[in-house]
Amino acid sequence: ERNEEAFEAAQWATQSAEASALSQMAGRFAAGSGALAALVREQQDLVNQRQGLDRSLVAQMSGAEAPNASREDDLRRQLVILNQRLAGVNAKLAKEFPDYANLSNPGPIALAVVQALLRPDEALVFLLSGEKASEAFAVTRETAIWRSIASTESQLSQRVVNFRRGLDIDEFERSLASGHPDLFDLAGAHDLYETLFGPLEAWIKDKKNLIVVPTGPLTSLPFQLLIVDPSAPVSGIEKIGDYRKAHWLITRHAVSILPSVASLRALRVSGSRSQGTKPLVGFGDPIFGKETVATTDGMSAKSSARNLETGNYTNFWKGAGVDRARLADALPRLPDTADELQAVANAVGAGPGDIFLRDKASETVV
């Protein structure tokens, strides 16, 4: 029962960040006047209040804060009142503005619903990073596990930065030129796996498909490159082929990343109804904002596109939404995606008119 309560509270605690697209859409409704705008603003205010209360409750229940029974009881009382108010607003939206209500639906999805949506060979891992501690949930059809992680959001952020540094090709080339090649740290990748998945491993290791819902700095972690079992370090550049022997997460699981737990329902319910009429429609190598690569040479573009710093998307938040102008300016070109899309199109028999690149890869065309 506590697992179920914590699972839903954790979803509420991250709801505003995960639902950035919803927030932007809701903002358009709320920007005007009238009954719908007022209800939307009230709904957003209540969701934001719920987010703060649920973060506090999760911290209390997990032991991240000093145990305080009276404070936990007070938080629960506040949540009951807030839930009643939010339910009233949602009911009014559903009755008076059903189209908007169907689109928004800000609530989390219950643990039992997630289990019913999962297939026998799947496990969902929900990772909630926090200021004082982090939480990890593993859900399969058979069971649900909740464990605390002894790493704060700021600690995880630094570890992700260190992890990604080992994937920076330009950094590697510079270190190689200096005579001291900076190789990818297999031990560090295994240690990070143990931190995030070690407490859950007994329940997920036999599941072929791993669905990960990350939050905060973990949104920029390529989970596929974590190391599940200790692997011998690569001793030098002449032994670089030994990386093939490492126990990468991707060799044990097929990995999918979701922006929120609730998106599983959207994919499974809505996706099952859709009927594709073409083998592929692909969009790639878009123009984001100002062009960061001025060359038309393919190899030069690919090399230049790697010269920007990588970071997690939370660096680009502005209030409750994304600063899209700043994000666009920071994004490099993606010339490799054009090659990849063409290769997939050839493999599945898609026509050239179904691949949209550069200025044709736009929201308008989508």
How would you characterize the overall build of this protein?
The structure is a single chain. With 366 residues, the protein is an alpha/beta fold. The protein contains 14 helices and 9 strands. The strands form 3 sheets. It has a 5-stranded mixed β-sheet with strand order 3-2-1-4-5, with helices on both faces. It has a two-stranded parallel ribbon with strand order 6-9. Strands 7-8 form a two-stranded antiparallel ribbon. Strand 1 and strand 2 (134-139) form a beta hairpin. Helix 1 (2-18) crosses helix 3 (35-62). The longest helix has 28 residues, at 35-62. It is globular, with a radius of gyration of 23 Å. The model is unreliable at 292-296 (pLDDT under 50).
How is this fold's topology laid out?
Blueprint: H1 2-18, H2 20-30, H3 35-62, H4 69-96, H5 98-104, H6 111-117, E1 122-128, E2 134-139, E3 144-149, H7 153-165, H8 169-177, H9 186-197, H10 201-204, E4 209-213, E5 254-257, H11 262-273, E6 282-286, H12 298-304, E7 317-318, E8 321-322, H13 324-330, H14 335-348, E9 355-358
Parallel strand pairs: 1-4, 4-5, 6-9
Antiparallel strand pairs: 1-2, 2-3, 7-8
Helix pairs in contact: 1-3, 2-3, 3-4, 4-5
Task: List the main descriptive attributes of the protein structure presented here.
single chain; 366 residues; alpha/beta; two-stranded parallel ribbon; 9 strands
